[in-house]
Amino acid sequence: MTKERKYILIIGAVLLVIGAMYRFSGEIGNLFAGGDETLVRQKQVLKYRKVVREKGLLQERFNVLNRTLSRSESGLLTGGTSALAAVDIQNILNDIAGRSQAEIRTMRVMRPVEPEEGGVYIAVPVQVALDVTIRQLEDILYRIENSPRLLKISNIRIRLPNTRNPEKIQVTFTVEGFMKDKNTAEI
């Protein structure tokens, strides 16, 4: 063999060894690095323990939310149908007007508002027209907002029929009560 061929053969062998080391360096490192695997497993165990601890916190939060939902739903109207729920609203409004010594001119039950997609509560609106003083109106609105039933005033119109004597005003407002939709699945 000539000197030139020996150099080419040595350079080729060195390149072959370098190529093999480059190709298999990851696998060789894994053979000698047993400590890395235990670190990875320890991190996984810590992660799983954290998830298990959070489960207890999430369960407690879920229970708190269920209690809050139960308390809130106690203010819903209890009638089996929207007509019975509207009668309940009418009785509440008659009682409030009587306590405030106000005169109800008309009371109309409006068409129930069906829940939106994914909703579970039906709004039952009742429209009321009154002739009251400002003080009586304030008292009525306060009593509606603080009723044990969940009631909402969704629309209000106030007219002053006699500008010379502004003692009495004509008020028309819509009160909405809410009831659970019987057609939706229980959450």
From TrEMBL:
Keywords on record: Membrane, Transmembrane, Transmembrane helix
Pfam families per record: T2SSM_b
TM regions (residue ranges): 7-24
UniProt xrefs under NCBIfam families: T2SS_GspM_XpsM
Protein name: General secretion pathway protein GspM
Lineage: Bacteria, Pseudomonadati, Thermodesulfobacteriota, Desulfobacteria, Desulfobacterales
